[in-house]
Amino acid sequence: MGALLGRRRLMTLQRLARPLTLVLLSAVVLYPLVWMLGSSFKSPQEVLNNMSILPNEWTPGNYADGWSNFDVSFGRFFLNSAMVAGLTVVANCISCLLAAYAFARLKFKLRGFWFAIMIGTLLLPGHVLIVPQFVMFKTFGWVGGDWPYAPLIVPQLLATEAFFVFLMVQFMRGVPRELDEAATIDGCTPYGVFRHVILPLSRPALVSTAIFSFIWTWNDFFRQLVYLSDLEKYTAPVALTLFIDSSGQSSVGPMFAMSVLSLAPVFLFFVAFQRMLVEGINTSGLKG
Predict the structure, then answer these.
(1) What is the pTM of this model?
(2) How far apart are CA 172 and CA 283, in angstroms?
(3) Per the domain annotation, does 234 fall within a domain?
(4) How far apart are CA 259 and CA 221, in angstroms?
(5) What are phi and psi of 57, to 5 degrees?
(6) 118-147: pLDDT as tens digits
(7) Structural domain boundaries, residue 147
(8) Which 8-state DSSP code applies to residue 148?
(9) Angstrom distance (rounded) from CA 187 to CA 182
């Protein structure tokens, strides 16, 4: 009888261990975000002296101060980020889909070799390419030009994101080739097969590419810092650095307030397309 009770207690503990562990891990992950949200309502002095989540004295004026802290409204920075992220999403979806179709369906010499080279570029850290890219774009006259976003967007039109190409290639390899053959028998050219067969079926992979492109571009800081020098052209991540000046003075309250607002588009975008994101990953051969 005692052994039976001990076994039941062990089973109960095992059932409770998993949810408790998940709750603990979730608390560890969410604590910095919740603390930042609470700090956005603290005065600069309280941010440095009060490490608790809730402020002793609420300062909602941080949001108004942060929004109009510079000569340019922070809304302008949001619009710049939205433009860069939106154009990057469109460029990646179009170029990577075309490149993936070539690797997955078309036959040409050294196809496997070029695909391996493309996959090999995933091993290169992005910061290694910053200097040669800057020199090349400077030669083209794109750096400091009338439209300084060209170095951030134009390369995406050339399918430079190998991860997205690989994602779509894996998805297209799961599409039965009998559909291609049936379309060819009906008189479709390779372009017709792409338009009428591959493109309609590639929606999950395109959604995954769009979501990752938007999130990564919106949160990108270093590349945008390198190429953007005009205050009116700044994006939200770069503009957040303006709250800390060269003399060491900082407006941490308004900075946290604008940081919270900067996270909102990414959070809402992810929540809105979360189901499609999971579906796209599961149907592209990347599931574990």
Answers:
(1) 0.84
(2) 10
(3) yes
(4) 13
(5) -130, 120
(6) 999 888 888 888 999 999 999 999 998 889
(7) 73-282
(8) T
(9) 9
